Amino acid sequence: MPRPIHLVRDDLEFIAGRALETPIRSCAALDALTGRTILVKDETVQHGGSFKFRGAILGTRNAERGVVAAGSGNFPIAVGLAAQELDKPACLVMPADVAAFKREQARETGAEIKIVERSELVDCARMEAHRRGWRNLHAFEDVEMIAGSFTVGSEIAAAIQASSPASDAVIVACGGGGLAAGVALALRSWSIPAAIYVAEPETHQRYARAREIGVPIRIDRPGDTVCDALRSRQIGVRAFEILQRSNVQVCAVSDELVQHAARLLLGTCGIRVEPSGALAMAAVLGGVVDSERSRIWVIACGGNVPSLARERL
């Protein structure tokens, strides 16, 4: 079992000093369409195009010699940028089916890139880290990544407290659970009573399955999803424990709603999200939030789409 999470103030301040405090956006047209007040925490403008940079900069700082990171796009891109900023070597392990523009984003950070079959990601990263004597930073199991997500939740918590909280709900996408866990931990640490909804793709309900049986379990994937950043087959152990203590609700969202939500965010608010980044908004469109929750905070967690890829590097 993992050790309890103990977040260090100096670490959180280090993240805050390196990452952007991203804007919270609203749009009257979106409110009118949904019948709610929608506030979007826009992590698409974060360094590297996603919230992952927040944890990556801390994890890379804590790597004594160099860092290895495995993932399908946003995480290795974030680690590559963090290593570039901190002048440390990095090896990024990416799957053969990764989107070409994400592979190019990772390559432009100056890190070494290794392409392997998706099934070999974890083993290859472990082997490379062992061979080099470097840190193998995990996308959602390591405490630094949860600390990074905690800073997202803290920024939302501060905004809720500063704006006379009404009947609020916060929706966060869930892959391995690092973002959801960090946000939930922050909101509850700030004593924010908002309802927290953890949204998963219909085809990858890792947390829902883990809740059913009481422990994280590797799921048998019934299909694919457009949310390529959310294809982990098992929720993280630390993330599961945090979410179980945080009084959250879990919901599943279809790819069709995700694609509709992405178009809606672009058309109404000008926020260009990748499918994974639209999952939380899709949950709103799916009607999962209780009707008495009049103000909804949505995290647009990533915006790495082809038309913006080169602009960010």
Automatic annotation (TrEMBL):
Pfam families: PALP (PF00291). Residues 21-302 form the Tryptophan synthase beta chain-like PALP domain. Its cofactor is pyridoxal 5'-phosphate. Keywords: Lyase, Pyridoxal phosphate. This is Pyridoxal-phosphate dependent enzyme. It comes from Bradyrhizobium quebecense. The lineage of its organism: Bacteria, Pseudomonadati, Pseudomonadota, Alphaproteobacteria, Hyphomicrobiales.
